[in-house]
Amino acid sequence: MSTTHFTRIAMAIAVLTLAACSTTKLAETADVTGKAVAAAPASPAPAPAPAPAPAPAKSAVAAVVADHLNPSSLISKERSVYFDFDQFVIKANDGPLIERQGKYLASKQNLAIRVEGNADERGGREYNLALGQKRADAVVRALKVYGVGEKQLEAVSLGSEKPAMQGHDEVVWAQNRRVDLAYPNK
Question: Which of 20, 142, 179, 181 is the S-S candidate for 79 at Cβ 3.0 to 4.6 Å?
Fold first, then answer.
């Protein structure tokens, strides 16, 4: 075999190797004799079908069309988040209230409120103040999820100093373990 024959074979192997590795087909390639041969037209790979757009998440809370000064609006009526004994975890059933209040406050960037944490009468003064603060802080964190600004919220603890109900039983205590959202009167 002559060196010309080996050179042609090496060139053909190189061209075929490059063509096989390429994502774009060559317009023409060389056969083993070195003559140009038209390559079969490359068919474009079918484009993947576009993924369907995700459906917008449905909220369980109706769009807010009320305000905090309207006594018949839910923003005005539902302002308390209730807690279990010795807990500062927001219950799932208070999620819609938090969402409604959060969206409302986020839409009113100039409106600031006090988030007042409360405890029932069981427990010492310092303990109740600390628990009320933890409850207020939990509600503040939840409201921020909906875009409420830091400057709009002031978390304070009232401990057991401002009971919603008077008495010494579980029904009364359950009403006093809460956080109230205190809006300005104007």
Answer: 181
